[in-house]
Amino acid sequence: MVRSPGHVDSAVGVDELISDNENVRHQRRRAARRQRAQRPKQGFFRTLVQIIGELLITCGIILLLFVVWELWWTNIEANTAQQAAVSQFAQEFQGPVTPPAPAAPTDFGPPKVMDAPELPSTVFGIAYVPRFGENYSRPLVEGVGQAQLDTLGLGRYDSSTMPGGVGNFAVAGHRQTHGAVLDAIHTLVPGDKIYIQTKDGYYTYVFRNNQIVMPSRGDVLLPVPTQPDAKATERFLTMTSCNPRFGAEERIIAYSILESWQPASVGPPAAIAAQVAANQKGQ
Amino acid sequence: MYGWIFRHLPGPLWFRIITAVLFVVAAVFLLMQYAFPWLSQFNPLTDSTIGSGP
User: Fold this and answer.
1) Nearest CA in chain A to B44
2) A138 at B interface, C-beta within 8 A
3) Is B50 contained in some domain?
4) Fewer CB near the terminus (10 Å): N or C of chain A?
5) What's the fold here for domain A72-280?
């Protein structure tokens, strides 16, 4: 076969081109390096401004990251911790999870009131609020410090009574961030049920009204809320949270009153039976 | 500043990029795990208890 001269030429040409290319690339890289080395040294003032600028940008990014952490990540962390606390409490709970027959007696006498836990952060119960969602079940813990409210849900003011007690059973919870346990507190309407489960049984509170007050109004925690001279005869549940949402200039208070109770041995109220069972299964 | 740090990282370009990304990830982790929870106690917007105000 006779190769055409043109073919041979072009083959050589490609090889040369490739090697040339490499040479050119090497030369360019060397030139760039030389140029960088020769670049006049940046002035002191210019370097200073550049560093300050970079630090300011960094501060801005860190602040944005803090907002992301506060509004998003704390919820994920707190929800995980609270779910674990609910599951653990439900698994240690002794008693049937099927509701009693509708015809069964419903009067069990005065509610049994458990002793206050000795240690803060002890999970002593679960709160069910169907108005906040079918699956809403949040742990009740002892104490209203940051350690309790930020991770574990609804904290009990240790100056208040335990669930079912005569007087005021008062809890606090976050409106936003850290699980947002009381985010929907303003959606409660009179007659809504709030179920509290402790190791002794189930306490059914009925929501009556809410009130928006200044943060200094500690009297909403009194045995008869806001009435220092009254003698307590009723059993209140008071929930406090921030108001407005995403703010804390005021507090929103939700008052409920005990309607009935049933011991753990009888089973949960029908309205929350499915959720009680689901919690026990660890879902 | 960051340019200076990047130029002083050891290794070839790809290795320096990986190192830089690792530094950023470590910084974010430390902030989320330690700095922000500490900073959070000074944030008055999350206070939901009563009687603690002025």
Assistant:
1) A248
2) no
3) no
4) N
5) Sortase; Chain: A; (2.40.260)
**Best interface-test mutation with A: which of B34, B46, B52 has the largest number of A CBs within 10 A?**
B46
Cis geometry, peptide bond prior to residue A99 (ω within 30 degrees of 0): no
- Look at residue B53 in the predicted model and tell me its pLDDT: 39
Does the beta-carbon distance from B44 to A214 stay under 8 Å? no
Q: Compute the average pLDDT of residues A79-100.
A: 91
Residue B45 in any domain: the answer is no
Residue type, A159: S
**Residues with Cβ < 8 Å from A267, sequence gap 6 or more?**
A95, A96, A97, A98, A99, A100, A273
Contacts of A238 in chain B (CB under 8 A): none
Residue A15 and residue A20: Cα distance in Å, rounded?
8
Q: Which of B32, B46, B53 sits opposite A178 (nearest CB)?
A: B46
Distance CA A153, CA A68 (A): 20
Q: Into how many domains does chain B fold?
A: 1
What is the tens place of the pLDDT at every residue in B7-43? 999 999 999 999 999 999 999 999 999 999 999 888 8
Closest approach of B32 to chain A, Cα-based (Å): 7
Q: Tokens representing A48?
A: 């200073």
Residue A62, Cβ density class (10 Å: 0-12 exposed, 13-18 middle, ≥19 buried): middle
> Scanning the structure block, which residue is given the tokens 């104490």?
A143
Amino acid sitting at position A169? F
Whether A137 and chain B come into contact, CB under 8 Å, resolves to: no
